[in-house]
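User: My collaborator sent over this chain with a note saying "see what the structure looks like." That's all I know about it. Can you take a look?
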Amino acid sequence: MMKKFLLPILTIGLLLGIATIVWATVIGTPHDLAPEPCAMCHSPHNGSGQYPIWNRTQAAQTYTLYDSISFDMGPATQPRSPSSLCLVCHNGVASELVNYPGPCANPDPAYDIEVAGCADLGLDLSNEHPISFNYDETKDLDLNAFPTATTVRTSPSTRLAIKGKLTSTNYFLAGSVTAAQYNYFECSTCHSVHDLVEYDGKGDYQVYFLRADNTGSQMCLDCHTH
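Assistant: Without extra context I'll predict from the sequence alone. Here is the result:
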């Protein structure tokens, strides 16, 4: 009798898992970079330990951070995960794989990266949107009316998000479960590296990997309401 109940549940779970894998993809995006694009960032074995199955390595870098008199929630810290992982490629410094695909993990230069052009943010982040700060709308001294961060998940770990006032998009915050802090504003708050959202003008007059359509600057106005 138990098997009759378990089989449909397992089947549904497998289908949902496959659907999630298909939905979350870099294929056909600017992150589709090598013969095995998933391996550019992930390894099923022997990852670097910086993040689950994270496959890239780079010596620690020191960044010049954003700061201004209107930055009420600052100061920002040196980039934390997952922003630090994004910057492994987007800081213009060469990075390599930990575990190369193929027999015996022979190094293959096709998987080494040194991003150039408009995607190269460099080590000076003082003219970029701030990251790696604790989002706390109560510190909004300039009365910008930033939305309140809300809990969108409690299991298996707590997850907070800023609910966009125009688009109702969940802009997810990051953090450390052990430190009971879940309100870190990171690159992944506005961007999804797996390109989850479809919108007009992607790759033309809008960039890839946004969490919402930014036509009319509505992504910006989701948080910056005044």
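A starting point for your reply to your collaborator: The chain has two domains: 31-119, 135-223.
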